[in-house]
Structures are given as C-alpha cells and as structure tokens.
Amino acid sequence: QVQLVESGGGLVQAGGSLRLSCAASRSIFSINTMGWYRQAPGKQRELVAGITSTGRTNYAESVKGRFTISTDNAKNTVYLQMNSLKPEDTAVYYCFAATVVNYWGQGTQVTVSS
Asked: Which of 48, 26, 45, 11 is nearest to 99 (CA)?
C-alpha cells in the first residue's frame, strides 16, 4: 500500500507560481509511474504530468513549458512546479502512484485569479 499526501496548493494571481508536493508513505523508487491529475468543476479529471521510475516524463499539452514534474527519492516525494499560471489551471490537483493498484492522494486546491 501507498499513502499519498499532497500539499502546496493555494490561491495565486495569474502569472504566478506554485509548487505542489506529494509525499509517499514508502519508497517511490520502484513505483512504475507517479504524477498529477486535476479536476476542475464540471469537468473530467485529466492527466497533468507523469514521471516513470526511469525518469521519463510526459505532460498535458496545455501545461507544456510551464509545469515541471520531478522526484526526490530520498524524501519519497514528487513535485509539480507550476509557473505562468492561468485561470484555466484552477482545479483540485490529485497525486497518483501507479503500481499493480493505483493510489490517489486526497487532492489539493489550486485557484488562479485573473
């Protein structure tokens, strides 16, 4: 099992930055893929960014060049650095860990004001 705890969300003005953190309850070294989804009101949950155990990353087209996903294996933590934030980035952001079973965090709210 893996427990995931997100932090770092909040309210920011358009053009600003936030860094989300996702702390795992055990080593993430062997987890196939970790990353972030988001869900805005009235919309489906969408993949924002993912990173594999080999360090390969992928991003939604809407965040490429603005968001960066990274890991710190020593801290069992995944980060999402979000720059140049836009109002359309407003959503609840969920951390996930894909193993044989998929695990999810509780979500953290990101609100970008115009």
From this structure: 26
